[in-house]
Specification:
Keywords: Electron transport, Transport. This is Glutaredoxin-like protein. The protein is α+β, with helices and mostly antiparallel strands. The protein has a domain of about 80 residues: Glutaredoxin, CATH 3.40.30. The protein has four helices and four strands. It has a four-stranded mixed sheet, covered by helices on one side. A hairpin with a 2-residue loop joins β3 and β4. The protein is globular and about 40 Å long.
Length: about 120
Amino acid sequence: MWKIKMLWFQGNSMQLAKHSFQLLLRNLSAPKTALPVLTLFTKDPCPLCDEAKEVLEPYKNRFILQEVDITLPENSAWYDRYKFDIPVFHLNGQFLMMHRVDISKLEKQLQKLEQQGAGG
């Protein structure tokens, strides 16, 4: 009986070691820096928000777009703050721009973050 338990334990240890090694390899091959998060404060309907998303389309591989519907009860603080200003954008939690996409401002901030991520 001890032999069976020991083999079972060794088998699980091998599985765990194999899984850990696969995770390690995956992490080594993953990008060194996470993409910045561009948060869009929006509501439905919001034609200016739709227009802004179209303008952002060519840049979508450089950030993760997170949309926050300010009309949801859990976002009431954002509603109070931005109800007359959407679309509003934050980059990594910091205010970036409102009303329309300012490509030069976005580009400048993305480059700054990318340089920081590259150790620059």
